[in-house]
């Protein structure tokens, strides 16, 4: 006859002191009750409560009461983000947001103590500081992703960041593109600058700033028919603040070969002659990195220096808000689309998703007129003109 004896969950062990210690195995780890119990029945009752929590999905790893949000976010960065995110810039951005914003406000709170209301107040405070919606939203995303990992590990019952409410934030800063006249003014203002060729190339091809500063002479074939440029890498600033050459963004589409217009080829040839003169002048100080756009001693350009140079060119062109190099990429998209290029053609050129180009890069460069002209053609036979009697 089969035994009707029920096997108890966990185990209860009598200690030399006469009290009882309860323990159990779950998720591959042994857990011990935080305190001893007077009788075996008390120990078994405590274990029954734990077993019920596990079956209901409300069990919490006791370690969760000890782990602070700051330490968990660091663990999440090292175990989840490092293995999933391919971009060093993205990883560095997450780490900076955690260090500058999240850790000072919520870092000492343990995972078990963190509530949705705490996250609500934190996000509202950041919105009140005037941070943009995308920035505040990224903080919520980081918290929600890290706590989702904690939920999978049994350290929290629910993801309180996913329950938090996004506060009202200031409207995002309107992005813009150069008009055709502004683009010509910028090219004229860049003449004579060390980075003249970078401005011309960025506007013609829409390369990202990191792709421009990471461009190698071996990536160029100026004698080919047509002359070509191969995008094979990009400069990125790592968590330690150092700039180094790494993989391109969206490696599948980012690795691409482009043809170059004659005017840009001539500018690049002049730039190469100038760089040879700099190399000869620098003598033993020159570091041969193979970069097309380098410092006066051949080392990688610092992004801050590139921004300052670009802002100076924009000011000289009479466009004071032209102070960020990404404006070249925005302008390339908008001007090409305005000139009749297809979105697929521009996406191939820029190594990006067509939906991203529409959402983030395309801007009006002239008053909307084509729609009005089409409507005039549709309605002119119906709507009487002012000259008609």
Low-confidence parts, pLDDT < 50 over ≥5 residues?
A: none
How far the N terminus sits from the C terminus, by CA atoms, comes to 109 Å
Number of strands: 8
Q: Provide the CATH superfamily of the largest domain.
A: Intergrase catalytic core
Outline the structure in words.
- The protein has helices spanning 40-56, 69-84, 88-106, 116-128, 133-152, 160-163, 180-190, 196-205, 209-213, 251-254, 262-282, 303-316, 326-338, 343-350, 354-361, 370-379; strands at 11-14, 20-26, 29-32, 220-221, 228-231, 234-237, 243-246, 256-259.
- Strand 4 (220-221) and strand 5 form a beta hairpin.
- It is mainly alpha-helical and 389 residues long.
- The chain folds into 3 domains: 11-59; 69-163, Tyrosine recombinase, N-terminal domain (DNA polymerase, domain 1, Orthogonal Bundle), CATH 1.10.150.130; 180-361, Orthogonal Bundle (hpI Integrase, Chain A).
- The strands form 3 sheets. A 3-stranded antiparallel beta sheet has the order 1-2-3, with helices on one face. A 3-stranded antiparallel beta sheet has the order 4-5-8, with no helix packed on it. Strands 6-7 form a two-stranded antiparallel sheet.
- The chain is elongated.
- The protein has 16 helices and 8 strands.
- The mean pLDDT is 83.
- It starts with 10 loop residues before the first strand and ends in a 10-residue tail after the last helix.
